[in-house]
Write a structure and sequence with these properties.
alpha/beta, UDP N-Acetylglucosamine Acyltransferase, domain 1, Udp N-acetylglucosamine O-acyltransferase, Domain 2, nine-stranded parallel beta sheet, elongated
């Protein structure tokens, strides 16, 4: 057994681990798991199923990655879990494989921070650079855009979308889609303003932040029908391309946006 794999760890025959992957005591890694270079797996971690894990990930103790979905329809089909590079997956995080009835794969991108007890259910798609605070929970088929932030104890209903650069406040329950750049809070979650501070921290210019604020007012403060608001924002995006993610989001069918 390699020096960087603890002798009490169980690494199944067939598992593909890069030579420098570290595996702590009592962790269990299944036969169809692949882990790329630079990743660290702490003690008592279970990585199961058809799971691919990229480079430079840190998986902390008692996490469970790639197990079968918590879905009554699942019948043992060959579904998968795919995790990108540079993610931090803290204690007791659970990430489940996809289902055949949807895309067949749960996908997590790069540089995400999943804090303790957070959960990513079957068929979810999580982008890059997101933050899941403790106990943030995604039901199945949820899509989370880049740089989104979920506060502690947030719950997201199945098939909802959380837009890029949005923020959902602690304890909120999301029953409809949260557009990009929006701050949401409550049960059910409602729009509370634009995420200006988050945009500023990520290097958006003052003009871009002002455009986002105007778009928020168009969407939520002018008493416009959704289609009229979408058209107005699309028109402004021609001179303010920072709004393009919001335009694309509003043009894509979903569960209806929070309003």
């Amino acid at each position: 057994m390699a020096a960087n794999i603890h002798p009490t760890a169980i690494v199944a025959e067939g598992a593909r681990l890069a030579a420098d992957v570290r595996v702590g005591p009592y962790s269990v890694i299944g036969p169809e798991v692949s882990v790329a270079s630079g990743s660290t797996i702490a003690s008592h971690v279970v990585i199961a199923g058809r799971t691919t894990i990229g480079r430079g990930n840190r998986i902390f103790q008692f996490a469970s990655v790639g197990e079968i979905p918590q879905d009554r329809k699942y019948g043992g089909e060959p579904t998968a879990t795919e995790i990108g590079d540079g993610n931090v997956i803290r204690e007791f995080v659970t990430i489940h494989a996809g289902t055949q009835q949807d895309r067949g794969k749960t996908t997590i991108g790069h540089r995400n921070l999943l804090l303790a007890y957070s959960h990513v259910a079957h068929d979810c798609v999580v982008g890059d650079d997101t933050t899941f605070s403790n106990n943030a929970q995604l039901a199945g088929h949820v899509v989370v855009g880049d740089y989104a932030v979920l506060g502690g104890f947030v719950g997201v209903h199945q098939f909802c979308r959380i837009g890029a650069h949005s923020m959902v406040a602690a304890g909120s329950i999301v029953l409809q889609d949260v557009p990009p750049f929006v701050t949401a809070a409550g049960y059910p979650a409602k729009p509370r303003g634009s995420n200006s501070e988050g945009l500023r921290r990520r290097g958006f210019s003052a003009d871009e932040i002002a455009a986002v604020r105007r778009a928020y007012k168009t969407l939520y403060r002018k008493a416009l029908a959704l289609e009229d608001a979408r058209a107005a924002i699309a028109a402004e995006a021609k001179t303010s391309p920072a709004l393009n993610p919001l335009v694309a989001f509003l043009e894509t069918p979903g569960r209806g946006i929070i309003r």
